[in-house]
Structures are given as structure tokens and as C-alpha cells.
Amino acid sequence: MFTGIVEEVGTIKSINRGQHSAVLTVRAKAVLEGTRIGDSIAVNGICLTVRQLFPDSFAADVMHETLNRSALAQLTVGSAVNLERAMPANGRFGGHIVAGHVDGVGRIANIRKDDTAIWYTIHADSAILRYVVEKGSIAIDGISLTVAAVEPTGFSVSTIPHTVRQTNLNQRHKGDFVNLETDVVGKYIERLLPSETPKQNTLTKEMLLRCGF
């Protein structure tokens, strides 16, 4: 589990591509501290398992499924990536629940300044937007952000200067693709809702209690 609070921005050192998979080697510093082979590190919001460790980097396998569902396939040597180690059990929960399991890819439709804030408008498929709500949480390339507005074709987030400086957002441009992970709680609730009739599909306190919430 992750929080969406990026620890550092690393760079892609090498990419060894297979027929349907790849091995990423990521140059990093902070996330290497205390990391062992088999540990999880989120790379642009995607949970990857460390397979090799080097003094200045780590390597991880990227499966066919991950390449199909994310924007990792567009990375090149030198690309900046957001990095976060898995949250320790005694850690501070600074963001929201981020599983590192990307739902899909969005595209930056607009970037605009609003005094000190910077707004990013992301276009995404309806399958993702159904779980995006105003003032709810979303992870963009592994960054925990609050949804400021929702539109039929996308949503917008307003970021503070610190977030832009400490992540790869400062290198993003209009037209770039980003990884998106919606709030996992909403997806679980939808899965648990009965669907026999519209009446049974009503969310109630009693139903949530029966389902363990």
C-alpha cells in the first residue's frame, strides 16, 4: 500500500524490452535506503517489485498486463518518474489509500496557472471517470491529489507549487499521458452492491454494515 506522497523523482537508467514485457532500471537515491530485493516501489504510481539493487539504482520487471494498462510503455531512457516506497505499518498516512494498481491512462488536456496554483485538466475514458468525484482523491502518476472539478470528458486538479517541484509534474506538458488510479473504496462498494433491481441497488447504512464497512 502507498500514500501517493512522492519521495523523490528518479530517472530511467535503462529499459530492456522483451516481446511482451520489460525490465526497468531506475536511477534513484532516497528510495534505495533500507530497500531489499522483493520490496515494492511505486514507479509513476505503479507498484513494481525490486528484482535487483545497485549502488545508484534498482531494477524491476514490468509484465505484459502492466504495459497494456499504463503509460510505462512510453518511457524512454532519461524519463523522470515519481518514486515512493511501500508505506510502513507505523508510517504517517499523508495522502490517501493508493494500491499501485493503475486503472488506466489519461491525457493532459490543459495546464494553466491560477496565481500560485497550477491546474491540470486530464481527459480520461468513462470507465475511469465513473469513479472520479469532486473533492475526492485520485492518484496521477502516483501523486495523491484532490479532484477540484469533474466534466463529461475529464477532471481537473489544482496543485500547489511544492507538489509540482517535488514530482515530475514540472516536466509534464499538454498532450502527455499519465497513469490514473481512482479511489479503491468506491470500486469495492460498487462491487458489493446488489444489482438484481434498482431498489436493491440503493446504498444504505444497513447494507454497508452487512458488508463489513
Give a written overview of the molecule.
With 213 residues, this protein is mainly beta. Helix content is 15%, strand content 39%. The chain has five helices and twelve strands. A six-stranded antiparallel β-barrel has the order 1-2-5-4-3-6. It has a six-stranded antiparallel β-barrel with strand order 7-8-11-10-9-12. The longest helix has 9 residues, at 184-192. The two termini are 19 Å apart. Keywords: Repeat, Riboflavin biosynthesis, Transferase. Lumazine-binding repeats lie at residues 1-96, 97-193.
Helix count equals 5
Q: Compute the gyration radius: what is it? A: 18 Å
- Terminal residue distance: 19 Å
Please indicate the percent range of residues in DSSP E strands (runs of 2 or more). 35-45%
The neighbouring-strand order within the major sheet is: 1-2-5-4-3-6
Total count of strands: 12
Classification by helices and strands: mainly beta
What is the H/E string?
Answer: EEEEEHEEEHEEEHEHH
The shape is globular
In helices, the fraction of residues equals 10-25%
| Low-pLDDT stretches | none
Q: Major sheet, described briefly?
A: 6 strands, antiparallel, barrel
Would you tell me the overall average pLDDT? 92
Pathway: Cofactor biosynthesis; riboflavin biosynthesis; riboflavin from 2-hydroxy-3-oxobutyl phosphate and 5-amino-6-(D-ribitylamino)uracil: step 2/2
GO molecular function: riboflavin synthase activity
Keywords: Repeat, Riboflavin biosynthesis, Transferase
Function: Catalyzes the dismutation of two molecules of 6,7-dimethyl-8-ribityllumazine, resulting in the formation of riboflavin and 5-amino-6-(D-ribitylamino)uracil.
